[in-house]
Design brief:
By secondary structure, this protein is mainly α. It is built from six helices and no strands. It is globular, with a radius of gyration of 20 Å.
């Protein structure tokens, strides 16, 4: 009789371990999913942080991938198969939580309301430092950016940061 009661528990454990992850892929939030396509790192991280897909809604990723020939002033065109692969991956892991429900202006993560709120105390001169160059270079300050970790505990001051701009790191 004991075996009959264990069967549902084992079935539930197997389901949670092997089946649930198949349905839990969407909305990984800020974390970088485990199955990052090599082309995503190779192509996207060559110019800016390879953002976790959960930082934008699916519609924004669709627009970004549909305009690679004019990707923020640069021709970032890719072959059809790579675009298909990356688009599918970005759509599968796109954000759906409250922070990313609204598409940011120009589909830019750095123009989203939450990004601007979190960085409101950063002086504009910081974005122009040689070690930073642009707000899109998250890894200049966030040591865990490549894994989707943007915690204040993992911040570092970028090289060349003037004393007057350091207050933002101590709030």
């Amino acid at each position: 009789m004991k075996t009959l009661f264990l069967f549902p528990a084992r079935l539930a454990a197997i389901t949670i371990t092997f089946v649930a992850p198949l349905f839990a892929q969407a909305d990984s939030g800020r974390d970088m999913p485990r199955n990052v396509p090599a082309a995503y790192v190779q192509e996207c991280a060559a110019c800016h942080t390879a953002y976790p897909p959960g930082l934008l809604p699916a519609a924004s990723w669709g627009r970004v991938m549909g305009r690679l020939d004019t990707h923020y002033g640069t021709n970032a065109s890719l072959d059809t198969e790579t675009v298909r692969q990356l688009s599918g991956w970005l759509q599968a892991y796109a954000g759906t939580y409250k922070r990313v429900k609204e598409e940011p202006p120009e589909y830019r993560i750095t123009r989203s309301a939450w990004f601007e709120r979190k960085h409101r105390q950063i002086d504009a001169s910081v974005w122009r430092l040689a070690s930073v160059k642009t707000p899109a270079q998250c890894a200049a300050c966030h040591t865990g950016a490549d894994k989707g970790r943007f915690s204040d505990d993992e911040l570092r001051m970028p090289a060349g940061l003037p004393l007057s701009a350091r207050k933002a790191w101590h709030d």
